[in-house]
Amino acid sequence: MPPVTAIDAGLRRGPFQVGDRVQLTDPKGRMHTITLEAGKEFHTHRGFLRHNDLIGAPDGSTTTNTAGTQYLAIRPLLADYVMSMPRGAAVVYPKDAGQIVTMGDIFPGAVVVEAGVGSGALSMSLLRAVGESGRVLSFERRADFATIAQANARAFFGADHPAWTVTVGDLVESLPSVVGPASVDRVILDMLAPWECLGVVGEALLPGGVLICYVATATQLSRVAEAMRDHGGFTEPHAWESIVRDWHLEGLAVRPQHRMHGHTGFLITSRRLAPGVTPPLRKRRPGKGYVTDLDGEAEWDAEDIGERVPSDKRVRKVARSMGETSRRLP
Ligand SMILES: C[S@@+](CC[C@H](N)C(=O)[O-])C[C@H]1O[C@@H](n2cnc3c(N)ncnc32)[C@H](O)[C@@H]1O
């Protein structure tokens, strides 16, 4: 096989070397991540182990500390790394990063815009998906967060990823000076107010390009969906969430874990229409009382939230049938 030159491939294979991150798991399942240094020791309240004992050992080895505690030593995967790396802002969890890469159709060679960068968790999944021939153009308005994200990615890839550019600034102000109109394949927004960015994002996306927003609350989801519709240049949005339930596997006790992450965020996606094209009318219209003005003063009723209100005739019919049922009861 020809030698692999991809940026992080060299760090993921072969015996442990100085500078490698190694995940140690003790018999109780407690994890620690260390970076191997010649002559260094890893101490816990019960004994220590020498890094030198791991340097040169194969990935997936065990080692024992001075108190006789055995550790499994293995290289962390990207999913392990993002959960343990230093954080500025909250990260996109691996389960959602997987959804974004697949449902956002992030392909090798793609030009992807991402904002904000936060701690860089999602950026790393995007960089892996586009590869060295693609571009991830990330925007972050906080310089301190951008610095943390770049340090995290550098530690993971072992060098600055050649496909990555981080611009410090607000996306709305910075995007038009970084990319030309209709030049971007995919846009991922993970921020408080993605609806504020739809104008510049609509300009930057190629026809057919994908926009994905990741939001934490249902109120944000609703607002960004309405903003996509109001923009007029996007297809009807599609929203979803993913729920992952880990399983306990112990002898005959094979069942879901008692604890889980009940909520991380919602995803909403849409495609950019060609210039001048208006979205086809939806076949299923919203209910007649459906309110799109979320700032409106009016009190909400069932129709405002798209609930079907039964006609008086239907309610009378149900009531009549219940009366007949109760009459038949002894
Ligand atoms: C939840 S964090 C992003 C986390 C990141 N996706 C990760 O996986 O580590 C949201 C970030 O968006 C940034 N942000 C919010 N609005 C922005 C905007 N209009 N332009 C650029 N960055 C923005 C915030 O400063 C914050 O760092």
TrEMBL record:
The keyword Methyltransferase applies. SUPFAM superfamilies: S-adenosyl-L-methionine-dependent methyltransferases. Signal peptide: none annotated. Transmembrane segments: none annotated. Pfam families: GCD14 (PF08704), TrmI-like_N (PF14801). It comes from the Bacteria. Residues 83-248 form the tRNA (adenine(58)-N(1))-methyltransferase catalytic subunit TRM61 C-terminal domain. The keyword S-adenosyl-L-methionine applies. Keywords: Methyltransferase, S-adenosyl-L-methionine, Transferase, tRNA processing. This is tRNA (Adenine-N1)-methyltransferase. It comes from Nostocoides vanveenii.
